[in-house]
Specification:
The chain is an alpha/beta fold. It has one domain (about 5-355): TIM Barrel (Alpha-Beta Barrel). About 30% of the residues lie in helices and about 20% in strands. It contains 12 helices and 16 strands. The strands form 4 sheets. A 10-stranded mixed β-sheet has the order 1-2-3-4-5-6-7-8-10-9, with helices on both faces. Strands 11-12 form a two-stranded antiparallel sheet. Strands 13-14 form a two-stranded antiparallel sheet. Helix 7 (about 165) links the parallel strand 5 and strand 6. Residues about 345-360 have low confidence and may be disordered.
C-alpha cells in the first residue's frame, strides 16, 4: 500500500506501520497522562483512560483528501481495496506491540507517574481513527471481535463513504461519523472526495447510523470561514443520523493541513462554543453537557442520557463486555455510568487515582 518514501515519512512523524495497511501512533494525550498532565476530552466525556488507549487504523488509505487532515498528499487514497489483507489477529497483536514499543522511552521520564505508566502497558481501549479510513478494511468485523475478545473497547471513526460497511457493522463500543459540511457543495470543497456519488453515500451512512442501537456519535470539525455555516442544515443531517452524542470540535492547524489552510481557519474555543449554542437552539432533543477547553471541543447529548441525579455519558465498560459475553443486544442506555461533575483530570502521585477539580 505504501511507497518506501511514504512509509519513511510516516515513521518520521512517529507512526509505526503494521503489516501492509495498518498503523499506530501514540496520542499526545496518552503521553500527557503518563506525565501526570491530564487526560483527553474522551476521558472527561466518556470515561476512557487516556493512558490505556491505543490510537491506530486498519487502513492507511482513504477515499477523501480532506483539507483539514494532517496527512500529506503522499498518503494513499483509493475508492477500492487493492492490497493484500492482513489477518485481524496479526493487526491486533502487532499494533499493541508497536504501541508499547513507542511508549518504552517514557519509563525513564523524571516526573513519571509509575502507577499510571505500569497501567499503560495494558491496553483497554482502541481508537480506530488515526489516519485513513479504517472501516474499509475487508475483515473489519473480525478485527472488532478480536479486540473485544481481548477486553479492549472499540471506538470507530468513519467519514461515511462506505455505507455498506456501516450497515453490516457488528456492535462497537462507540461509532463515530465525521460530518464536515452541512451541504453537498461544501463537502466537495472541504473533504475533496474521490467518489462521484459522495453525498448519496454520506446520507446512506447517516441512515445506517440511525439504525444502530449501540452508542453513536457525530463529530463536526469546524473550520473558521469555511464550514461554520448553516446550523439548520447541520441539524437536518443530524436528525437523519439521530446520534446519541454530538462532538463539536475545532480544526487544529497542524501537520500538512498547514499547506492547505491558514492559521486563521482554526477556531478559538469561544467560536466553537458559540456554534454549539447555535446548533443546540435548532436541536431540541439535545443539551450541552460539558466541554474540554484545551481540545476546543463541546459535547451535546440526547436528553435521554440525563437522569434526576445528573448526566450518564460515561461508559460502563464492564457492563458492555458482559452484554457481549452473554450474547445480548448492545443498547446504548444499558452500559452507561453517571458522568462525574468535574472538568479536567489530574494525577496525584500520593494517591495515584485520577482526581478531578471544578473549573474556576
Amino acid at each position: 500500500m505504501l511507497t518506501e518514501q511514504a512509509k519513511k515519512e510516516l515513521e518520521r512523524q512517529h507512526y509505526r506501520v503494521v503489516g501492509e495497511h495498518s498503523a499506530v501512533k501514540v496520542c499526545g494525550w496518552t503521553k500527557k497522562m503518563i506525565r501526570g498532565e491530564g487526560g483527553c476530552y474522551k476521558l472527561k466525556f466518556y470515561g476512557i483512560m487516556s493512558h490505556q488507549c491505543l490510537q491506530g487504523t486498519s487502513s492507511i488509505s482513504c477515499a477523501n483528501r480532506c483539507t483539514f487532515c494532517w496527512r500529506g498528499y503522499k498518503a494513499p487514497v483509493s475508492k477500492e481495496w487493492k492490497w493484500g489483507v492482513d489477518d485481524p489477529e496479526f493487526i491486533i497483536d502487532e499494533s499493541v506491540k508497536a504501541h508499547h514499543d513507542l511508549l518504552v522511552g517514557y519509563g525513564g521520564y523524571e516526573k513519571l507517574n509509575k502507577k499510571i505508566y505500569e497501567e499503560s502497558k495494558t491496553v483497554k481501549h482502541v481508537a480506530l481513527s488515526l489516519t485513513g479510513e479504517p472501516i474499509m478494511y475487508p475483515r473489519f468485523n473480525e478485527l472488532i471481535k478480536g479486540f473485544h475478545n481481548k477486553g479492549i473497547s472499540t471506538f470507530v471513526v468513519t467519514n461515511g463513504q462506505y455505507p455498506e460497511a456501516i450497515e453490516t457493522l457488528e456492535p462497537v463500543t462507540q461509532l463515530y461519523i465525521s460530518m464536515d459540511s452541512p451541504n453537498k457543495e461544501n463537502m466537495r470543497v472541504v473533504d475533496k472526495p474521490l467518489f462521484p456519488d459522495y453525498w448519496d453515500r454520506f446520507l446512506r451512512s447517516l441512515d445506517a447510523m440511525k439504525q444502530k442501537k449501540f452508542r453513536t456519535t457525530v463529530r463536526l470539525t469546524l473550520i473558521k470561514g469555511i464550514n461554520m455555516i448553516e446550523p439548520e442544515s447541520y441539524a437536518k443531517l443530524l436528525g437523519r443520523a439521530d446520534p446519541d452524542f454530538i462532538e463539536i470540535k475545532a480544526y487544529m492547524w497542524v501537520g500538512e493541513s498547514r499547506e492547505r489552510l491558514k492559521k486563521e481557519n482554526m477556531p478559538f474555543y469561544e467560536d466553537v462554543h458559540a456554534f454549539a449554542q447555535d446548533l443546540k437552539a435548532v436541536l431540541p432533543e439535545y443539551e450541552l453537557v460539558t466541554d474540554h477547553k484545551p481540545s476546543r471541543v463541546v459535547l451535546l447529548a440526547k436528553k435521554k442520557f440525563k437522569k434526576s441525579d445528573g448526566w450518564y455519558t460515561w461508559i460502563d465498560f464492564e457492563k458492555f463486555f458482559t452484554l457481549l459475553q452473554e450474547g445480548k443486544e448492545i443498547i446504548a442506555e444499558e452500559f452507561t455510568k453517571r458522568t462525574p461533575q468535574q472538568t479536567m483530570p489530574k494525577i496525584d502521585e500520593a494517591t495515584p487515582e485520577i482526581e478531578f477539580w471544578q473549573e474556576d
